[in-house]
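README: folding subset

This subset contains proteins for which both the sequence and a predicted structure token string are available. Records are stored as plain text. Below is the entry for Cysteine desulfurase-like protein (406 residues), shown exactly as it appears on disk.
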Amino acid sequence: MPGDWGMVFDVSAVRATYPALSDGYAYLDGAAGTQVPEAVIEAIATAYRRGIGNVGGAFPASHRSDAIVAEARAAVADLVGGRPEGVILGPNMTTLTYRLAYALAKHWREGDEVVLSRLDHDANVRPWVQVAARAGATVRWAEVDVATGELGVEQYDALIGERTRLVAVTAASNVLGTRPDVPAITAKARAGGAVSYVDGVHATAHGPTDAAALGADFYATSAYKWSGPHIGAVVADPERLDALVPDKLASSSEDVPERFETGTSPFADFAGVAAAVDHLAGLDPTATGTRRERLLASLAAAEAYELEIFAGLLAGLAAMPHVTLYGKAARRTATAYFTVAGRTPDEVATHLAERRVNVWNGHNYAWEVTAALGIREAGSAVRAGLVHYNDSSDVDRLLEGVAALG
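--- output ---
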């Protein structure tokens, strides 16, 4: 039960590991990027202090970078349930998705089809729309129930056909928090012979992840959403990656996953990625076993804790007659998206910032769903999201600030 997990989850101890939280602000902007714990800061600084070089060299600084890259791949694999040799690292999920889109679309022909979702962040929409247009492929859309924020699974029966090449879907909406039934959707894609590309950027921070159980042929995530530096990753079976030929320099590695990683990597930041995963694995100090096992237990504890205090946030906003909430999915992350009568979203965010409460406003790159909701042209809405370092005082301050606008 959430209450039981709340007793195990020591949020005060967790908060003490994040230096930025000492500034007196309520950081409810985690859906756009989290703060980082001291261990991540120290890992990055230590990499620079010790000295690093480019990979593949004969000298110790290069060997340290080799080890850092290997550690980062292993950490991400543990986090999402993949294999280290199938972990592509890069500057962010958007850039990596474009790279994979270009590589996958080389096999598409006129009349082929891709199935996208209106629920998704634009980073799992626009790359596919653009490469489909170049290939002459047709884009088909899975629609969102605007009243609930749900993405109905049954519609995919009519959307997926023998010419479907790819199905792209989010594991959780970055504005509504909706968690679609991804395993059911990817099963339909697989039955139709299509590959699935799952955007796990928002979802990964908010609970245990098992990319295989989700049925994801490609699973994308970003470390800065789960207390790491600004690094993205896409995880897939190495054999699937081996069948793809990305555009790259003639002189760069032909190996998988290196062939998808253009340019020189930020090796010190990769050290921060591994440290962030270790931090997540320790959120539940009672968890034991392998790092993967500790991650599953810790993130389950964090998710239950987040949803416990999120219930109070939702109830508080719902009780205010001047507030409109968007999204009522049965399964969701601790993410609220709302408007305030008589105020633009920017005005609300500015008012809250003056009260030292950090929230985001606008479409937040959820381009399609904000249009479907009919709010994009008016500035969309305000987003307040909880992560594992938020506490009930953050929720209280948000509610007090929004109540003052009534």
